Amino acid sequence: MPHNTPDFRSRAQLIERMDEPCSREQLRACLCDLAKTNRWTMAYRPLLHWLNTVTTVLPSLTEPLRILDVGSGYGDGLRRIEQWARSRGIAVELTGLDLNADATAIAAEASPAASRIQWVNANIFTYTPRKPIHLVISSLFTHHLVDSDIVRFLQWMEIHAQIGWFINDLSRAAIPYHFFRAFSKLAGLHPFVQHDGPVSIARSFVPEDWRTMCAAAGLGPQDAAIQSFKPARLCVARRKPTLGGEPL
Ligand SMILES: C[S@@+](CC[C@H](N)C(=O)[O-])C[C@H]1O[C@@H](n2cnc3c(N)ncnc32)[C@H](O)[C@@H]1O
Q: How far is ligand 1, taken at its centre, from the CA of residue 244, in Å?
């Protein structure tokens, strides 16, 4: 559905096509092209950089590092982390959680037989992890939520993430909005991605949004680090003080 160009002064109230009912085939094709876009835009880089930093200062764990990816979609991000952990000899237990049962089925199908990732169909707000989680991560998830639910999500992560959490989302600005609109058409990406990409940028954040929501969640100004990554990513990282460190 076409929409009027947003003014970017506040988060746009637009609906993404992937959040509306669709067939599993449509969702698979959309998520597959979203994964392609993630690779082309080096979207895994901020999280891998943070994981490298966190794991170098981790006291040696006597158990695997348990990571929960919320809103895991196609699962490409978690599969990338599985490769990262294997290449560094880090023992991990990875869980991808998604509200959409088709998404978790698609992520499982797209994973190689040797993958040990668990795919869970659940709503994060009613999910109780079976084992304590060390790190909670998400990518392109938070802009799907209204501000009050993002504050609840921050509080959920504060309770459940023993070591820290990392949010990888988009930066709200006119240039990436117009660029992605043109690029996704030219590249012939799935119609949902052509629509939802610019809408996601318009629904996403500027640093002040994150400062306000982190404060509303009870975090102090130094507790989380807000950092931009090119192109068009805005990330929020939190390392718990139990690790004795600065937010990364
Ligand atoms: C845009 S996709 C992101 C997929 C993937 N993380 C990526 O970076 O490409 C957002 C995902 O969040 C999921 N989601 C939305 N609300 C959720 C909730 N309350 N609990 C768990 N997953 C949710 C959606 O079903 C969707 O698959």
A: 31
